[in-house]
Amino acid sequence: MKRSVFLICFSLAAGLQACGSSDTGSSGADNTGGSGGDGAGTSGAGAGTPAGGGGAGTPSGSSGSGGGGETAGPTGFAQMEDLDRGVVAVSTGDGIYVGWRLFGYDPDDIAFNVYRDGAKVNDAPIADSTNLMDQDGSPGAVYTVRAVVGGVEQGASEGASVWRDGALSIPTEAPPAGDGYTYSSGDGSVGDLDGDGRYEIIVKWDPSNLKDNSQAGRTGKTYLDAYSLEGERLWRIDLGVNIRAGAHYSPFLVYDLDGDGKAEVAVKTAPGTRDGTGEPLSKGPAANDDDSRDYRNNDGYILTGPEYLTVFSGETGAELATTDFVVGRGDPCSWGNNECYGNRVDRFVGTVAFLDDTGRPSVVFGRGYYARTTLSAWNYRDGALTNLWTFDSSSSRDNGAYAGMGTHSISVANVDDDPQQEIINGGATFDNDGKGLCAVDYYGHGDALHVTDHILSRPGLEVFQPYEGGDSPAYAMRDARTCEVLWRGPGNGGEEGPGRGVAADVDPRNPGSEAWVNSSQLLSGADGDAIGNRPASSNFLIWWDADLSRELLDGNSIRQADGEGSNFAAEGCTANNGSKSNPTLSADILGDWREEVIFRCGSSIRIFTTNRVATSRIHTLMHDPQYRVAISWQNGAYNQPPHPSFHIGEGMAPVPKPDIHVR
């Protein structure tokens, strides 16, 4: 879709402004957002080599795109966060590693100077990466970064102190133990809760008696905490006894939903939920409910009583808006396999997505995926929640083709020629208006889901997924827009298919992604041919070392799949969700474009970042709309690793300029 030529002005790190004409171009067939135009003095062709941007924030980054300037930033489609430069400094045996962000809209000729305690470290401005190793640095130093634009040095970022132990430890305070159970911190997310350009962390607390949906028994309550990077607990939300504790019940979405520059938190609630100020819900249908009522039955399931969707202030935790949760449970037997006891009815997923023509984010919650499948999209604007659309596979014959297509996760990508995103729930793709776009012609349920530009020789995005159905292929690669199956594995032969599967570029010798499940060899993403032995794990992924290949993240360890570099283990830290063994969060939240990982470590959570100097320059992945919303859905059900809208790996194309604006 072509849009008009306009003038982009944005403020640089020193509060200066740069302007340029920009034709945002078309959203290219490869879903990279098209040419991106000549915005803000850039070429619009991306960053040249594997380049274009890099990094993310720290406890003391710099002023973000606003940086004290007078304009809000670039004026592309999707609303991204107005982040700071995210300077991070880590002590190593070779000196002090320093990394920082490149914004998605920075001009291609931007370079950077790094200062230690006010003295410049580098001889010439750094233009080919967003990191360095300061061999003369000391653990007591404070680092700042200054952008250089058109040969003119801009203002300094805020100072970043050195992480002396190679990680940032944030103390956490567990909720009080209950009758026979205790609490552990679990899945997490991030958002800029106060609008200062730095991320805060939101953590879910799980009781030790949490249950899978298939298991009877009462559970303790679920809590959500917010923490600053300086270690302050900002608020605690108590979801109450009428929200059952477990991996599938409470996906929570963190994003700036109304465009005020501060993130909100959206989550399913019920009578008895208390907001971050300690008050029971009081808005909309919650105004007259009975907060003392316990709707749990003798088996611990909650099959009666009101169900709500609530948006909370990320800054204070206060309730902002509450409405009825759509789609409601209705008849618990209607969700498949005649299971009336409470298993299939309460399987939830959730994500942020850019669905309407405003470029502001919506929230999408899904209920059911084994058989009956529903999705409901909501906008939070001007203090109110409004339903954008609802899809129900049981509502019509045509919609019935989309039943049984969901995975224990969800993904979002722009698969067509408009700027909005589509919803990919597994074996099906839904257009931004909530209508089914395509579905595979077999039972589409599975446990893993990977959406990106897996195959470099063809346009568009692809979806790799293992399938559980006895009559389904064990795994397949499909087109994200048409659901055409490009290649598939052997049939499952009437047995349950593989429970784990991964697709990513882990082998630099093979173009594009490789793929594997826990019962296959390593497969070429292009055609499914076997090309080697299966990697050591079939779980999470992370960009960690200095090359462009992705590493394996499993439990508390990072391992090389390509044989290059060394491994890493977060000693004293623990993964979440049992055999799923995922971190609290993995995302590009600090430093350059590579990803950080957060683990729970006793009475704290710790953020680990790379300390390997990379020579590639890629804009912060948090300014790629597909990757950014992936961080919102990562905490739901069977956590999956995030993927950007473009390929990162050996021989990659120039990184496209994202079609974004910032608030």
**Main β-sheet, in a few words?**
8 strands, mixed
**How much is the radius of gyration in Å?**
23 Å
Amount of helix: under 10%
The structural domain count equals 2
Supply the number of helical segments. Answer: 1
Q: In percent, how much strand structure appears in the residues? A: 25-35%
Q: Globular, elongated, flat, extended or rod-shaped: what is the shape?
A: globular
- Strand pairing plus helix content: what structural class? mainly beta
- Poorly predicted regions: 1-72
What is the tally of beta strands?
44
Separation of the first and last Cα atoms: 24 Å
Mean of residue pLDDT values? 90
Pfam family, one: RGL11_C
Signal peptide: 1-18
Region (Disordered): 23-77, 270-295
Keywords: Signal
Describe this structure in words.
The protein is mainly beta and 663 residues long. It folds into two domains: 79-161, Sandwich (Immunoglobulin-like); 167-661. The protein is 1% helix and 33% strand. The chain contains one helix and 44 strands. Strands 4, 5, 6, 7, 8, 9, 10 and 11 form an eight-stranded mixed beta sheet that branches. It has a four-stranded antiparallel beta sheet with strand order 12-43-42-41, with no helix packed on it. A four-stranded antiparallel beta sheet has the order 13-14-15-16, with no helix packed on it. A hairpin with an 8-residue loop joins strand 13 and strand 14 (200-207). The chain is globular. The relative contact order is 0.15. Residues 1-72 have low confidence and may be disordered. Keywords: Signal. Residues 79-163 form the Rhamnogalacturonan I lyase beta-sheet domain. Residues 171-658 form the Rhamnogalacturonan lyase family 11 C-terminal domain. InterPro entries: Ig-like_fold (IPR013783), Integrin_alpha_N (IPR028994), RGI_lyase (IPR041624), RGL11 (IPR034641), RGL11_C (IPR049366). Residues 31-71 have a biased composition (Gly residues).
